[in-house]
Amino acid sequence: MITKDKLICATYALIALLALPATWINNIAFMQQPNNSFMDFVNAAYVNAAAASLSNDLLFIAIAASMFMVIEGRRVGVRYVWLYLIFSGIVAISVTFPLFLLARHLKLTNTQPEQIITEA
Fold it and tell me: Is the pTM of this model over 0.70?
């Protein structure tokens, strides 16, 4: 794997690693409040216009990313794509989508012949 590919993979991994605490610190804080349910979480996501805009933005990008994961995963042969979809809902799409992109990139670089560098 060339340096460019290693940098791309490291960037995807870093995004996933940063997204996990960024989302779950807030999820845990919400769950620790008394009498909270999933519907309370959804209602809080639409508490004002700014929150609703971000929630809708996340929803639609999650739909597009999920479609991409299924279609592209099948095309390049990424295994267990359904797990990325399930964990997107359980963990966060901001974690699983970069992990899918990492798996996809690794799959693509492993199926391409090594680039031969020649001196001119």
Answer: yes
